[in-house]
Amino acid sequence: MDLSKYKSLFISESREHLEEMTNNLLVLEANPSDNSVMDEIFRHAHSIKGMAASMEYDPIEVLSHTMEDVMDIFRKGLAPITPEAIDELLAGRDSISVMVDEVERADKPRFKGHKKAIDRIKIWGRKNLPDIGDKPSFKTSASFDDVPETPPETVAEETDFGGFDGEVVSPETPAGDGAMPDWPDYHLNPQTQKGGKWFIKLGFEGETEAPAARAFLAVKRMEALGALTSEPTIEQIRSGKFEGVIKAELETNSDISKIREVLDGLTGVKSYQLEPVGASIEVEEPPVQPAQFESPEPATAELARTVKVETRALDAFVNAVGELLTVKSGLRDISRPFDSPELNITLDRLEALIHDLHSQIMDVRMMPLETITSRFPRTVRDLARTAAKEIDLLITGQDIELDRAILERLNDPFLHLLRNSVDHGIEFPDEREKLRKPRKGKITVEASREKDMIVIVVTDDGKGIDAEVIKETAIARGLVDAENAEHMSVEESLMLICMPGFSTSEQVSFISGRGVGMDVVKSTIESIGGTMRISSTLGKGIVTTLHLPRTVSILSVLLVNVCNQIFAVPIGKLLKTVEIRAKDIKESQRGHMVLLDEDSLPLYDLKELLGIENGEKPANKDNGMLSALVVDHGNRPFVVKVDSFMGQEEAFIRPLGRPLSKIEGLAGIMTRGDGKPVFVLDISNLRSGSAQS
Amino acid sequence: MPIRVLIADDAVFMRNMIKEVFKQPEFEVVGEASNGIEAVDRYKELKPDITTMDIVMPHKSGIESVREIVKINKDAKIIMCSALGQESLVMEAIEAGAADFIVKPFKPEKVLEIVRKVINME
Fold first, then answer.
1. With an 8 Å Cβ cutoff, are B83 and A53 in contact?
2. What dihedral do alpha carbons A176, A179, A182, A187 form, nearest 10°?
3. pLDDT band at A9, cuts 50/70/90?
4. Domain-embedded: residue B120
5. For residue B122, is it within any domain?
6. Are the C-beta atoms of A199 and A209 separated by less than 8 Å?
7. Boundary residue ending a domain (A284, A299, A333)
8. Residue A279 pLDDT more than 80?
9. Could you give the number of structural domains in chain A?
10. Per residue in A471-510, pLDDT tens?
11. From the CA of B76, how many Å to the nearest CA of chain A?
12. Which residues 6+ apart lie within 8 Å of A130 measured at CB?
């Protein structure tokens, strides 16, 4: 049979089992006596073993078989589940995973390192698990290469079928002679071929798989014919006392042809002997079955309901839709002078269709958050084990869907946050007890939808961080000057840990040690159009809130003009646009403030934020009013002055490539209907950039 | 009339392999089940001539399913699909009423040999 066509199915199905296995192992660690979970894990190992055996990936088979045996010991209650046991099982699982990866990569996988993996769990098992006779795959010290071709079961039981060959009874030899000392006297009924007592001797093939089960089935089938006494008995066979031969006496009403039919129907029987008790001996060779199996035609694959699509293709679709939108805007511009209702209706229709197409493509690109969070329990578990801490992880909202491009970028920031919480947030169990906290720390990841954004809140109940200490450190490092620091809110102070250079890996022990990689976290979140906020109560823990867009790329933007250049600002970041009077602007020691609806808000000039100067005076309107944007920034909105508004547009936003992506305050680039590129501003970041400089 | 086959196995991989084995003019795979409960349901519904049954399955084990199917039809012909090291389970399944068994990794010709023998049994 051509195995190659099963390869991809083997890979995908094995991976499903492996993933489930991880989850189950973590559940088991938390509930060490949960038998149903043990059964599940056993079943996953077992399924992988079966598939690997069929695919002839022997190292995977041997390793999963060993894990299966270990699980069997646990589920029989012969050894307790310990964290070390979970470590070993996880390690075994990981090794299988690596091997499955290799199957995917290589035409002829060599499974480098498999010996080590197999030895590891076996050595551990020998040291830590009770010695059970019927678990030879685990008992044997041999690693895969040393395992002979015969299955380990057969080897360990030292079943020897060899003796039978010389024992085939010739017609002259009286049956049962001396072989069965306790055999009861035969009650001969020689006059009839129908009914009566029969002596039967079955010799089994040496290579039979599951020989005891074959023998068992043979005895059961013969039993169905009448009263049977056998040696070994069915109970003996069940407990493994089977040496390749069954001798039996059968009292039956069935005729000889029926008995033959049953004996011929047995598999694995090399030869049998059937004789009326006391009569002459008959040796039958079962007819040799010709190999009837012919290699079938390659299977015509059923048409699947799902197809795999290269993610590149999806990206190309999105780009194409983006272009369509741009072309449509161009058409709109061109059509304006004609003022033709028909043309406008057609354009409306085109626009609706493009939006439809866009939302469908976006849906295809959506993947549940689970795609990345499913690995978190394992990650946190391993980190906690390493750090000698006890931690529960709770994840909610995993079914919430995000664009895969966003998900891809989220993995690393999340790992940073989780690692920080485990390493620096959650205290050691004893320490927590002293603080009257539960020994087990808790980390939660909660995702929810809020309008068209996804909100993900990561919390821990660890020691938290002190805004004042953060500020002092930032000042000491020269990241912020003392005067600025003084005016910072708690939240702003906490955000200082996200400044590059706030903390380095050498300084992990500093206070909570947080800040490791937080600058990377923040910039990654922002690069996908999200925001990050941190709050913390000293001694109670830390809360990191991420606001993320669900989809990439198409956003409503407001086009603004400054110094005769056009920039786009995502509408989602704006509270409103306002006209302000020059007299409402006040100077303060922190810069300009403007009075808006009785609130005094900081005012910035976009020109200054961007560093553009062309010497022109601000284009004050005739009535002396200035155009400005009110930017949504949590509970501290601010105002940005522009020269004029150019209108609103649906823009397809492309991420900036390197090195432009490094520039703070730029979220991407869009193309207007006339084909000219326009920078899309990440307006809240622009301001923080200027505040820091 | 081809011999109607029901395949019960939780692994798509295994089901596909077994299906390929039955790509013979005399057989027709009429149904598949991915767990024990489904196996019993599909059996009731399809009344197949032969059923291949994985031993280790979620929700309801193959052995438990055999017991239930035999209750419905004592002459049901069920062939267990076992793996190495499952002899005692195979015996349990035979006791429960399974007609025969095959051992993974199986050779197609072996499977057909056993299936044909079971079909020819009275």
1. yes
2. 0
3. confident
4. no
5. no
6. no
7. A284
8. no
9. 5
10. 888 888 888 888 888 888 888 888 888 877 776 444 443 3
11. 15
12. A73, A78, A79
Which residues have CB under 8 Å from A110's CB, separation 6+?
A102
* DSSP 8-class letter at A423: I
Tokens representing B117 are 């023998």
Number of other residues whose CB lies within 10 A of the CB of residue A545? 16
Total number of domains in chain B: 1
ipTM of the complex: 0.84
Domain of residue B100: give its range: 3-115
Q: Looking at this protein, which amino acid is placed at residue A537?
A: T
pLDDT at A42: 92
Residue B88 has a CB neighbour count (10 Å cut-off) of 16
Give the three-state DSSP class for B89: helix
* Domain ranges, residue A342: 311-367
| DSSP for A447-495, written as a single string | EEEETTEEEEEEEE-S----HHHHHHHHHHTTSS-HHHHHT--HHHHHH
The Cβ of residue A188 has, within 10 Å, a number of other Cβ atoms equal to 12
Query: What residues of chain B lie within 8 A of the CB of A54, using their CB?
Result: 13-14, 17, 104-106
* A484 in the same domain as A527: yes
Residue A388 neighbours by CB under 8 Å, 6+ apart: A428
Highest mean pLDDT among A490-494, A584-588, B92-96: B92-96
Name which residue leads in pLDDT, A184 or A101.
Answer: A101
In this structure, the answer to whether residues A514 and A562 fall within a common structural domain is no
pLDDT tens digits for B58-67? 888 899 999 9
Residue linked to tokens 């993933």:
A19
- In angstroms, the separation between the Cα of residue A103 and the nearest Cα of chain B is 15
Chain A residue set in contact with B, beta carbons under 8 Å: 1, 6, 9-10, 13, 40, 42-43, 46-47, 49-51, 53-54, 56, 65, 68-69, 137, 151, 153, 209-210, 212-213, 216-217, 220, 237-238, 261-262, 265, 267, 289, 291-293, 296-297, 299
Chain B: nearest CA to A209, how far in angstroms?
7
CA distance linking residue B85 with residue A152, whole number of Å: 9
- Residue A672 in any domain: the answer is yes
Q: Do A216 and B12 count as a contact with CB atoms less than 8 A apart?
A: no
Is B117 close to A267, i.e. CB distance below 8 A?
Answer: yes
- Which phi and psi (to 5°) does residue A466 adopt? -100, 115
pLDDT digits (tens, 9 = 90+) for A409-462: 888 889 889 988 998 889 999 999 999 999 999 999 999 988 778 999 999 999
**Structure tokens given for B18:** 């077994």
CATH number of the domain where residue A89 is located:
1.20.120.160
- What residues of chain B have any CB closer than 8 angstroms to a CB in chain A? 10-14, 16-17, 19-21, 23-24, 56-58, 82-88, 90-91, 94-95, 100-101, 103-110, 112-114, 116-118, 120-122
Q: A75 vs A182, which has greater pLDDT?
A: A75
Burial of A617: CB neighbours in 10 Å, binned 0-12, 13-18, 19+: exposed
Q: Evaluate if residue A45 carries a pLDDT over 90.
A: yes
